[in-house]
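I am hoping you can look over what I have pasted underneath with an eye to the fold:
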Amino acid sequence: MRRLAARGAAGDAGEVAAPAADSTDCARGRHPSPRRLIDLCAIWDPGVFLPAVGWKRASGFARRRLNEAETLNSVREAQLELLEAARPRGPGSRERGPVLRMARQQQPPPWVHAAFLLCLLSLSGAIEIPMDPSIQNELSQPPTITKQSVKDHIVDPRDNILIECEAKGNPAPSFHWTRNSRFFNIAKDPRVSMRRRSGTLVIDFRSGGRPEEYEGEYQCFARNKFGTALSNRIRLQVSKSPLWPKENLDPVVVQEGAPLTLQCNPPPGLPSPVIFWMSSSMEPITQDKRVSQGHNGDLYFSNVMLQDMQTDYSCNARFHFTHTIQQKNAFTLKVLTNNPYNDSSLRNHPDIYSARGVAERTPSFMYPQGTASSQMVLRGMDLVLECIASGVPTPDIAWYKKGGDLPSDKAKFENFNKALRITNVSEEDSGEYFCLASNKMGSIRHTISVRVKAAPYWLDEPKNLILAPGEDGRLVCRANGNPKPTVQWMVNGEPLQSAPPNPNREVAGDTIIFRDTQISSRAVYQCNTSNEHGYLLANAFVSVLDVPPRMLSPRNQLIRVILYNRTRLDCPFFGSPIPTLRWFKNGQGSNLDGGNYHVYENGSLEIKMIRKEDQGIYTCVATNILGKAENQVRLEVKDPTRIYRMPEDQVAKRGTTVQLECRVKHDPSLKLTVSWLKDDEPLYIGNRMKKEDDSLTIFGVAERDQGSYTCVASTELDQDLAKAYLTVLADQATPTNRLAALPKGRPDRPRDLELTDLAERSVRLTWIPGDDNNSPITDYVVQFEEDQFQPGVWHDHSKFPGSVNSAVLQLSPYVNYQFRVIAINEVGSSHPSLPSERYRTSGAPPESNPADVKGEGTRKNNMEITWTPMNATSAFGPNLRYIVKWRRRETRETWNNVTVWGSRYVVGQTPVYVPYEIRVQAENDFGKGPEPDTVIGYSGEDYPRAAPTDVKIRVLNSTAISLQWNRVYPDTVQGQLREYRAYYWRESSLLKNLWVSQKRQQASFPGDRPRGVVSRLFPYSNYKLEMVVVNGRGDGPRSETKEFTTPEGVPSAPRRFRVRQPNLETINLEWDHPEHPNGILIGYTLKYVAFNGTKLGKQIVENFSPNQTKFTMQRADPVSRYRFTLSARTQVGSGEAATEESPAPPNEAYTNNQADIATQGWFIGLMCAIALLVLILLIVCFIKRSRGGKYPVREKKDVPLGPEDPKEEDGSFDYSDEDNKPLQGSQTSLDGTIKQQESDDSLVDYGEGGEGQFNEDGSFIGQYTVKKDKEETEGNESSEATSPVNAIYSLA
């Protein structure tokens, strides 16, 4: 028999344990196990290994060879002997047994046994086709339904109808539909169309039509030449939200303290509406344990109080799809009472009933009636039991289950303990429950008998089966339910009974068995399991492939690896039947496996330690009966990168130059890059640094240069690191003594190491300290190196105080030690000492076992056992190995065991996610380690098989919803349940023409929980949501898509809010509509307030229409600034506000200071005093200037002034004016000199020709022209009228 196989490079890289087959099964001509899909019986045709499908399928040549066998009587003996050759001979190992001999011909080569063992490993179900697009496109495949609408498909009558059906296959399938079990001719109905390359139906009502005409049961058929797949039967219904019947309700008259039920009786809708009670003024009715709403929608009063008639009561029904709320006419209460005064102070009275004169009564049940009732619930749904009682005082409700306790993990009390909800009901939740209603007057009880039924649910859902020609297989369709569901098989959409007979197919109840499948056996099978509560329909195709071997990886790959490393050469392949794989080196030699080589099941070749001689070309050859394929991998071995001269710790003074060496040896064919880190961060090479190939130089060392420097030498394959510490010494004051002036340095290396007192587990190490270089040695670090596991690598052994130079070292068995010592002082570390002589301790059994033992699956049918390998000091002897034991937990089966030399082992053919007990024990040539601890591991996880059901959505507010779902059964998780996850996306906005992003988002709910909250939603939007359960492998199937609508919310802030001030009288405001209206905008609210410094004015509020985006404001004063706050409004309220301020005027700083200081009394007084003092000083100054500005011309005042008169020697003139007034335009200084003004009114203007000038003492030099008296007088009058000096002089 041949079998399809795919082996990928991503497969397990460990050893796989395979079960052995029983030889008697082959002898009897049957499979060793009914679950195995491969026949272990085989015959040998020279040069070709043929998995047998029976004597008739053997080649004629092989039959002749078998008939000629003189030493064998039958094929049975050959099969028994071949199985004996492959049977394991001991725990964890397989011995070579006798091989099959046929008529004294040549024995099969060794790879035959490997191929046979590979067959033994391939006993699981049908495998998946590799994801390589070239293979996917070439291989034929029957159709598979990938997407379909829910079974109960309710649509909105206002929208077009969409019935989804998508499928994949090769060739691409075609689609057709049935409606109410009859062919649905899409071409005859102009409103109905089918999407391209899909089976999805679109029914368009834009041109008219009634959606109700298309209600019915639809089923999709996807067909290609290899079979037909079916969708579920999709029941299409149009959502209905009928109006409440009009009725006139008379006031309800009731006596205070009596019970009352207000019936809702909502109109029947599809789906059922959500009921809630409000007053006619849309105020919610406050509910408590006295007044509450039942699950049937009625409003129950355990006892009526006078305060209850302060409002009316209206029942409201909200219909999901149409987003409408229907309101019933309101009930009005009229309460008859013995105490007509509704004194609010009595509401908190400890006994309000007696205070109001209400008679006390024992409890009685309002719902349900009587003392007993029964209720049926489906498995996986929520069970809701309800008891509502009347009585005075209001009774308390308690719940119990007969013969046991309530399930604490699933039970929840609701509606003030009047309702008991049990989520995710299972069969053990059936039984009798009773509620107890009690008050101080007595108690009563009601018993509810609960019966749990179940719609069909999967135990084994049929899976697609991919086989090779001649192979056997089976489809299993196993479901459970209450009552027990019936199973019906179909093939390509037709009942199996009416299908053409197939001798290779056998139906056994819920299983179809295929024997000797051929290409003609390809088809799609449907399993329909149903009972009175529902049905399940599953498609599973049988595909038969015959594919010669082919390689999946690129050809002629080049792999470069560093010497002494471990590497793996991948050779992923695919074929049907399973190809055998062999590796060769340089095109010659035998198959590579064993020793330094290990071949994994997926075809990868691992070389445990690369050596120079391993370089070359490796060829992998995959062979099956249809041919062979090969690929080559060229392996190049490179020398490792090593830093042979490392940077050393240094101490430098500030301002000096430091050089850090880093010399590297590397493979010349690889590109070397040397970089530096400072304090483990990339070093910036500034202008004070110089980086060369083998060193780093720092010029003018500063304090900031202190730290650790790491040299990183790297190639594209490996890297090496070396670190040194730079200490920068700050400038120090002149030393006060000679010792302080001596420079300090790192100590010299210790020397003359000597080993004495040699013992089995200890040795004494003695050394001579080196010079401490003016800094006392604080510590010694002893390091060791061993030459077996990590030669050349030094490890810290122990640390000792700086006062000792001899120490006893504790040693481990079977280690060839070599020691060295490092001295440390406050400056740094010394160079290591020269190594000591070697000392090997004797061996012993291990005293510990490997740590961190784990068992985890890397595939759904294996478990990888890993551990941390033991180092040289814990090996205690040669040939360290590990005894790995495992067994299924709680089965008490015998331990499986195998001896492993590495640090991992893969157990194959395990069930999905089951616990195993694991033990890993160390062993060497001297014996075994102690008995190991037992660790619990788990086999591989598979994707979850079930989705959360009964997903319920409750809208909490405009941005959040509450989710509740039925948890999946543990056996369907197929792994460790990580979380429930909700995928949701915004389908559309309720606002027209508003584009929304339909990007999928997710919300996670870790752990096994039945509820959660999704927040940060957009208000006023339509959403869709799906739930999945997530384990370590990934997501399970998605739940039924749920739709919900978020109510209106408050809008976001208006966009681009701008404030402009064109002048000091007006301010212009502009804005854009909010980015997220979150509802229907009803307007904008603008609030603004004037402020001047810390003073605030009165806030003013303006309301605008939703279309207004501009506003002009008149300023009250030109000094104050304004702060504006703008927000948009919906019916819910105002949203986020945008805030801006008007621009600051140019003199704002002065205005602020004036507003803050100028109004202070002390400041005003100070300014007045300063002004008065300045005025007095000015008056005194002007008086002194006026008196000291006269010219000494009194002695010659009688001499007439003429143009010819010579100047006096002292530079003064003799005036004829007796008033002795100063010259026009001049100003007299305090020292009697005349200074020139900066104004244009110069003394030069009074002379002729502009020749006037001053002499050294400041007096006027030049000829003064004689004017007429009138002109002279006019000039003086003008000067007196304008000069402040003259005005003050006249006052003096």
